[in-house]
Amino acid sequence: MKHGKNLTLILSLAFILLAACTASPPEAPGKLEVQNVWGRNSPAAAQNGAFYMKLVNNSAEDDALLEVRTDACAAAELHEMYMKENDVMGMRPVDGGQITVPAGETVELKAGGMHVMCLGKTAAFALGDSYPITLVFANAGEMQVTADIRDSAQ
Ligand SMILES: [Cu+2]
């Protein structure tokens, strides 16, 4: 009786281990991932725009977003919002000109926080448009992503 119980336990453990293996994500672990890249729609008359995204660092090393290149803007800078005097929000280039993404952590560029500042839009950002963007990371190197133009975060 005792023997049978042990066997059941072993089989259960084997099943759990098997299930855990099958449930692991298809992507190779230890990579930096960029998710949900988007920009808000705005007419051509609006000179500047912004791009937002999620930076997920699944690797064991800290990484940093150093530079952004895109034909959608005359220049792209890494900015953050901050509180100026009298409860007025302002924005400025991020400290050190780069956005650190610590190992195992997620950093979100979002409205009201850090963003890719698009100075001198080269086109109207119309709903449904998409623009290729090159992100340059300290460790992950260059990554090509696509920014979708929407009217709000999803
Ligand atoms: Cu800005």
List the main descriptive attributes of the protein structure presented here.
154 residues, Immunoglobulin-like, 10 strands, single chain, 14% helix
What do these coordinates show?
The chain has 154 residues and is mainly beta. It has one domain (32-150): PCu(A)C copper chaperone (Immunoglobulin-like, Sandwich). 14% of the residues lie in helices and 47% in strands. It contains 1 helix and 10 strands; from the N terminus they run αββββββββββ. It has one helix spanning 2-23; strands spanning 32-40, 49-57, 63-69, 73-83, 89-93, 99-101, 106-109, 115-121, 130-137, 141-150. Strands 1, 2, 3, 4, 5, 6, 7, 8, 9 and 10 form a 10-stranded mixed beta sheet that branches. The longest helix has 22 residues, at 2-23. The N and C termini lie far apart (56 Å). The structure holds copper (II) ion. Copper (II) ion (CU) binds at residues 50, 79, 91, 115, 117. Copper (II) ion (CU) is lined by residues 50, 79, 91, 115, 117.
Overall number of structural domains: 1
| Distinct compounds present | copper (II) ion
Number of strands: 10
Q: Give the N-terminus to C-terminus distance in angstroms.
A: 56 Å
**Helix fraction by DSSP (H/I, runs of at least 4):** 10-25%
Topology readout:
Elements (H helix, E strand, L loop, with lengths): L1 H22 L8 E9 L8 E9 L5 E7 L3 E11 L5 E5 L5 E3 L4 E4 L5 E7 L8 E8 L3 E10 L4
Parallel strand pairs: 1-10
Antiparallel strand pairs: 1-2, 2-7, 2-8, 3-6, 3-9, 4-5, 4-8, 9-10
Structure summarized in a few sentences:
By secondary structure, the protein is mostly beta strands. It is 14% helix and 47% strand.
